[in-house]
Design a protein that fits this description.
This protein is an alpha/beta fold and 261 residues long. It contains 11 helices and 10 strands. The strands form 4 sheets. The chain has a 3-stranded antiparallel beta sheet, covered by helices on one side. A 3-stranded parallel beta sheet has the order 8-7-9. It has a two-stranded antiparallel sheet with strand order 4-5. A hairpin with a 2-residue loop joins β2 and β3. α2 packs parallel to α4, α6 packs across α7 and α7 packs across α9. The longest helix is centred in the first third of the chain and has 19 residues.
């Protein structure tokens, strides 16, 4: 039987200790379940008890968590779970994942929350074209939009183009009332919701009016040349081979989002 060891981590302040513990010790309970060793928090001192291997791994994971806490990022039980997933189940560092802030709006920081999201964001930064593949709710469109907004306001690109197949079977928009914009609006709600999360509504409306942010169905992309643009093709898995050929000739093409058969 492995001999039990005991180690101590001295915390910086009561605020760090409170963030580590969480409301009603919710964070500590998650940490104990995930780290396979006993945790005792006494004031500004955290005591780890267990096998030598378990304590060593727990200390490394907790130092990563403490780095995130000290950076001022808000911590919730779901974030602690995610951080421990990265620390325990992969070779990635949680502090590097959570330290990557793609965009900030009204004090809210947008960035990767999992190792795969971090890899996705880094791929967008490095590559001209990136395919984001994954189930719904994994942040493909949201993070892509954040990257587009960041690139636009940092003057890396001159405009943002958001497109998607508006209707899976032939994109027949004529039956909807109103202008072209009003016809396609229901299909682009996820993209608009993401944009409204990242800038004020008046600013977004002004940029759309000037054409610096353009939202259009894929059917309207045929034959266009879009230089110096960050292009997001959302829900690409719903396109046919013929529709994929409508993607414009864009030397500045930055992103291809979604899954394709």
């Amino acid at each position: 039987m492995a001999q039990a060891v005991r180690t101590v981590i001295e915390l910086d302040s009561n605020n760090v200790a409170l963030a580590l513990a969480g409301e009603q010790d919710a964070h500590l309970k998650i940490l104990e379940a995930r780290l396979d060793c006993g945790l005792t928090l006494r004031g500004d001192v955290l005591i780890l008890e267990g096998s030598e291997d378990a304590v060593a791994k727990a200390r490394a994971a907790l130092e990563e968590l403490l780095t995130v806490i000290r950076s001022g990022r808000p911590i919730t039980p779901s974030i602690v779970e995610s951080l421990m997933d990265i620390a325990v189940n992969s070779s990635g560092k949680p502090s590097e994942v959570y330290g990557d802030v793609v965009w900030t709006h009204r004090g809210r920081q947008v960035g990767p929350r999992t190792l795969n999201q971090k890899l996705y964001v880094d791929a967008i930064r490095r590559q001209t074209i990136t395919f984001g593949i994954g189930p719904a709710g994994t942040g493909k469109t949201y993070l892509a939009t954040a990257m587009a907004v960041n690139a636009f306001f940092s003057k890396q690109v001159g405009r943002i183009i958001l497109t998607r197949p508006a209707v899976e079977a032939g994109e027949s928009l004529g039956f909807l009332p109103g202008t072209v914009s009003e016809k396609v609006d229901p299909y682009f709600r996820p993209l608009f919701d993401a944009l409204y999360d990242m800038m004020d509504g008046e600013k977004l409306a002004a940029l759309i009016e000037k054409g610096e942010i353009e939202v259009a169905p894929l059917a309207f992309m045929r034959g266009r040349t879009l230089n110096d643009s960050f292009i997001i093709l959302d829900e690409a898995q719903n396109t046919s081979p013929e529709q994929m050929k409508m993607i414009p000739d864009a030397p500045g093409l930055r992103l291809q989002d979604g899954r394709h058969r």
